[in-house]
Every structure is written in C-alpha cells, then in structure tokens.
Amino acid sequence: MAKTRRLIKESLPFVDLVTEIVDARIPMSSSNPELAEMIGNKPRIVLLNKCDVADEKETAKWVQYYKDNGMYALPVDCRSGKGLNAYLPLVRQVLKDKIKRNTEKGMAGKPLRVMVVGIPNTGKSSFINKMAGRNRAKVADKPGVTRSNSWFVVGSGIELLDTPGVLWPKFEDKAVGDKLAFIGSVKDEILDSETMAMRLINVLKNGYADRIGERFKINGFEDKEDYEILEMIGRKRGMLISGGEIDYERASVMLLDEYRGGKLGRLTLEFPE
Hints:
Blueprint: H1 2-11, E1 17-23, H2 35-39, E2 44-49, H3 56-68, E3 72-75, H4 87-94, H5 96-104, E4 112-117, H6 124-132, E5 138-139, E6 150-155, E7 158-162, H7 174-183, H8 193-205, H9 209-216, H10 226-236, H11 248-260
Parallel strand pairs: 1-2, 1-4, 2-3, 4-7
Antiparallel strand pairs: 5-6, 6-7
C-alpha cells in the first residue's frame, strides 16, 4: 500500500482525472478509504463494475448517491464491455473545461490523461484490456512519472495510466473484510472457506433468502443456523464423504464460486446511506 500510495502521489500532477473501479455489489467496501485524501480535488469517475451480477435497482441508487456527493458514476461490466461505450464521452464531459482551456492556449487535441485505480479483483485489468483493445497501444513513459507505471492510448486524445491494485493495510470493520472475501479480493488461500461460506449465508438469508431456496432447491431453512443451511445445501448437491457426512469444504467452495459467478442471481450486499 505504501508503494502504491507513493506511485499515485507522484503521478497525480500528470493526470487530469481519476477513474476508480469498484464492485457494484459492494461499492463502499471495494473502494479504498484512503483514495479521497490521496487524490484531493482531482475529478473522479467511479465505475460500478460487474453490474450484471448486482441488483439493478440498487445500482441505480448508487449512481444517484455518487451524483449527490459530487462524483460521476457509471454502471459497467468490463468483461463484456457493457456500459463502456459511455465512458470516453463521460471523460470528455467531466473535463470539458480543461479541453476548453487547452484550445484557448492553442493546444487543441492535447491528450487527456486518466489514472485508473482499483483494489484486486474489481476488474481493473479487464477495463484496461477492453479500453485499450487487442493491441494495448502502450504510450512512452511520461517525464517525472515512475517508469513502472503503464500508459495506454484508449481513444482519440485520451490516455489511461494503469496503477497497481492492492488492499489497504487494515480493515477497521470486519464486515468489510468479509465482503471483500466474498467477491474474491482477499486470497482464498488465507481464509477458512467454511467460515466464509457460513458468513455469506448469514448475509444472504437476511436479504435474499429466496435466492438460496431457488438456487439450491431447499426450503424451511430460514430459522436454521448457518452451518445447518450449509449442510442442507451440501446434501442437496450430493456433496458427501464416507459415512454419509457432508463435505463442508467442498460445499463451501461451491457456494462461494456460485455467488461470485452470479449464479445466485443479481445480488447487492450494501446499500447507499
């Protein structure tokens, strides 16, 4: 985080705008809490990525939330490209005063430079690849900017600066850490899959219990403990080991994978204040 913070600070004088990519299912938890302080008064566009697996109505509320707080937000799916056709026009709209000043100074056509930031697994690489195209036209290093940063031409007069995606050092709220684990931003190797699966069940049964029943063809589980629901899911899927016991680890990994892949439907886990 210290290295990324330094890279962002060193690069900010050379960019006109910052684009932050967050997960539309958990926009607040997937946003680096230190970013606002780091970028200061730079204009910011928030891309609500993976909108195809988030609750559409809640995503619309998030767009309005950002607008009410002086930011621009755009629902997108970076893998399919959904919504990205509106990105470059939005960049030009946000920077219209900058474009006007450049024109008045005789620098019409001067490239607009945009820094792209985002934590792991929110889709930053997919966004860069989609916008830069197959050729990924890399731009020469800019003076004064750390050479490990990468610039890409993505449209007429617009360049993107890719930055490393890292998490911040400490989660003040355990629920934030859980949500990041649910979407895969925290490495599965350092987590207990059964614990995370039961925590996900706890969150879902309080807001999307019907999706659990529909997906796994179970009912009468609403008043059961989380581990009992996981057991019902595992048994329904035939995930058994010798003696007819449930293979909890296998059932847990399956549940997390299906949530991340959108197979439980369009689910949003946090909502605008």
